[in-house]
Amino acid sequence: MDCWEHETAGQGSVPAVAFCRHCGAALCRDHATVCTDERVRQNGMGSPTRLLPDGRKICCSTCRDAFAESIPVHRDEQRWREFAATGPESAAASC
Description:
single chain, alpha+beta, two-stranded antiparallel ribbon, two-stranded antiparallel sheet, DUF2180 family protein
């Protein structure tokens, strides 16, 4: 199976190594993003319990961006990517 992102962009065949957890698209190593999957157990009417260690899930860039606002883990990872791209001086200015 080949990477969906490379095929749709007309960049040729690149073997896929994973599938997006949300949409099922086949992804190569360059287009796959490893995201943290917080595991939570519901305790009836009480507060949920967070289970450790965190899991792992693979996302494509489209789904990662689409879920960035609704899934806290994706939102946090997006902030870290922006911080890494712009550096600490921009983070200090936004506080």
